[in-house]
User: What shape does this take?
Amino acid sequence: MNKPSFSFEIFPPRKSDSIDKIYKVLEELKDLNPDFISVTFGAGGSANSSNTLELASLVQEKYHTQSIVHLPCIHLNKSDIKLILDECKKKKLSKILALKGDYIEGNQLSKDFRYASDLIEYIKQNGDFEIYAACYPEKHKEASSFAQDIRNLKIKVDAGASTLLSQLFFDNSDFYRFQEACDIIGIKAKICAGIMPIANKRQILKITSMCGAKIPKKFQQILHKYENNDKAMVDAGIAYAIEQIVDLLTNGVDGIHIYTMNNSYIARRIYEATHSLF
Assistant: This one.
């Protein structure tokens, strides 16, 4: 059995933040030796990819860690994607997370890419990239059913995605149900479980409302009990994430992908509690 991977997601600083913040995060994460670090596309869904590519390149060149470039296509056409792929080649960025992405009001929809599978096919035609794709243990919020979402995922894998990074979830039984469905339909790609530790109640409620992840009763109790105690909330969130990860690793998950929200303290606490299990 292959060793499970351990990885992080980070994002470029928003316009109001100093670039030094993300440098500090990377310095604090470098000795955790993740298998890769994924870098989201711009800040808050920005259509500007320059920060993403610069940060992904920095991860590889300075910190000697494999980086994965997020690439959403919902507002980009073939010419836009081609420019980004060419820049990735120049910077030796060989791994791409191909995404449909979130709709940004006021931005024109792509004429060339309706689904992430369309983007995957185009990437395969324009370079020797290793392609990652997103998956949704509780189904994508736009999918008509769980079964339909699994069929759509099979299309992405057949188009060329070799590794899947899951959306966050808080009930491991949902992930195991999802794994079983993937196995039944013949999806052979590696599946990394996406884990997001709680940092504060408002943040997690916003994120779950956007992505459609449910909040189980046990998790709701944590949010209610510690909503007015920031330190306790962080500690409870870390403990909950660790419990999830231990269970997932015990059950043979392919990898753990931590959504750090650029919080190196939380990432380090989780690493220290679980790294001997990998």
Notes: The longest helix spans residues 230-250. The chain has one domain: 5-275.
